[in-house]
Design goal:
The complex is a heterodimer of chains A (429) and B (318). Chain A is built from 15 helices and ten strands. Chain A has 429 residues and is of the alpha/beta class. In chain A, the strands form two sheets. In chain A, strands 4, 5, 6, 7, 8, 9 and 10 form a seven-stranded mixed sheet that branches. Chain A has a three-stranded parallel sheet with strand order 2-1-3. In chain A, α8 crosses α9. Chain B is mainly α and 318 residues long. Chain B contains 14 helices and two strands, in the order αααββααααααααααα. Chain B has a two-stranded antiparallel ribbon with strand order 1-2. The relative contact order of chain B is 0.11. Classes of the chains: A alpha/beta (429), B mainly alpha (318). Chains A and B meet through α1, α3, β6 and α15 of A and α3, β1, α5 and α13 of B.
Chain lengths: 429, 318
Amino acid sequence: MAGKHPMDGSPRRWSRRQFLTRAAGGAIAVPSMAAVLAACDKPGTAPSGNGSTVTDIPIANPDDRVELPLNGTAITTDTPIEAGATLQVYNWDAYMYKAVLKAFEEEYGVTVEWTTFNNMEEGIQKLISGQVQPDVFFPTTDYISRLVQGTDDGPLIQPLNHELIPNLSANVWPSFSDPGPYYDVGAQYTVPYTIYTTGVAYRRDRIDDADADAQGYEMLWNPEHTGEIAYYDSYRDAIGMALIRNGGTDPNTGDPAEITEAKEAILEIVNDLEGSLRINGTYAKLPEGEFTVSQSWSGDIVGAKWYLPKGTGQDVLGFWYPESEPGLIGNDTIVIPTTSQSPRLAHEFLNFFLDEKWGYMNFADWNGYQPPFTSIDPSSLIDDKVVAPTLSRAVVTEEMFETALIQSQLTPEVDKLWLDAWSEIQAGG
Amino acid sequence: MANAEATAEPRGRRKNRADEAAGRGGAWFPNWYWPSFSLPGIIWLLALFVMPFYTVLSVAFGTVEPLFRSPLPVYQPWWWSFATFSETTQKFYAGNAVYQEPLIRTFIYVIAASTICLVLGYAVAYYTARYAGKYRVLILVALVSPFWISYLMRIYAWQSLLQADGYVNDVWSIFAAPTNWLSGKPLTVILGLVYGYIPFMILPLFGSLDRIDQRMLEAGRDLGASPARTFWRVTLPLSKPAILAGLVIVSLPMFGDYYTNDLLGTQRTSMLGNLIANSVFQAGQGPEAGSLTVVLMVIVVVPMLYYLRETKRAAESL
């Protein structure tokens, strides 16, 4: 063996042409070989990586709190901060204040790379396929247990080391830190990012407050506003609100009749009322005057002031959310995917956004989405000019979570009903 | 060298080949030489058409991963399942046929937009080729120059022109009540398509009209035909291949277009392309997106085959 070059063993040298033809053949042969190897199992029939099946996935909801299984280990406290790293942040578009990201970069001497998705499904699919390999990700709560379960390649998010995120217990509502939220008891994998309600935004120069109060959800179905109605193009929120408007009490219903009715209500907006299903209706197009009413997350309407044309006062923005009966409420989370190259820095990032000063700045100076901080007194947000006085109902309090309706994870069967209804809506029937 | 071979071995195949070679100008090439020139094209087709399309088929006839329900392509044809495909195609005709309207809509929009492209494009190309004189280069540059700006940017510009308090309504309201152009109006989407694709109609038409022999037209006039008749009997038939090429070039991408409607329309004006775009990232809808792509593929193959047949005929009649 000594001194023998591996190539010496080959029976003959390849001419350049032979090399080229074989290399080309090899290039074509590689995927087909992989396919043949994969052919040992029909895709989708093999048990997933850790032997459990879909039915084992806990379906969390506020009445059925879930402590997630510990799938993997958190990094240790003495892990050094990855110096000079590039932190990959994968978030919803326009959902974070660039100035706070800049402050984080400066404080840690790192670079933040910002990648966005337009809806949760897109975000999840690109995470699974590895197209995006983030250090920090912002999933909705209904995906958490599935992200912990992961794919054949293992879990998609990693447990958190709470010692590295002191702001979680110091600054966050106990309901989100200890005992932790219903979808992740003990906050083992997630920290909360923002809290929001889902109501109806309207132009106060076109609808007065008393009228808005009298109409409630019906503002969105009022023929007077034909051509000036926007509704979210996110299936859970769109169908969810239509269910409540139709008199339902369960925003996670599996009743086909209720789902069909909700679908028809949304199609009425699209077809008869010439409404538009889109993500930027509330935060961008309502302040510009394009729409008169829109389905609205509370954070969207609070942040809408940055989109008002010059000379238009903040008092044109109004927000209705039910007072007497329960409305829709929710929160978003921050997690650290297992793909993270800089998990320690990612922990610092989570802690940074739970910091009183920076988290507040992110909310007040750009985002409009409230973080669940004990340091924020909801009643002073209006005096502090963070929330316009006309948007008082967009302020979220901890007590609201006790009675309001939460959109939680659907079982795969129910989810299919929702998605079928949604594809009919997309077709404009 | 070929000649030397020919003298050394004057009979049989080699002789013929040498004769051929002499006919071609003296050089002799092995059999694989000329076909090998198609190699880049073949590799291009394999890598950028055959393999992607096979993947689309594998997604359409594949399955979904159970937990996140992301598409799992099945590459082995013996395991293909056609359940989703037949379910999807049934949505075009059976039961409550939810996809029928978008399909009909797609055809109406594409036919209307292509027709408008043809009528407007023909006039512009005709003028440029025949009457623009020293300005023709200027006109052609003016036609192409908008393409230096991305389509997305140009459509965003249209969004702000068309919005409720935009300039279009400022002018429109002189004649009629202002309209909400962006609230799912078929007309807006059709004009958006025309705007996006009309240069692809004008350029082949210009090329063809520009090449028409002036003497043919003069002959027509000499034989007593009126200008209109000369146009119908000479110019139009001679430009027919270009008309077909233009129609194919603009209508095929229009069939799959989704961003025009995304930006200028609503779900009320959803086209086939929108159905595909919407299902691609929707959990569990991957195979449906693949199936819709196959359906679209079948639809666009029909005009393509017609075009190929017509151009072949035109070539034979020359």
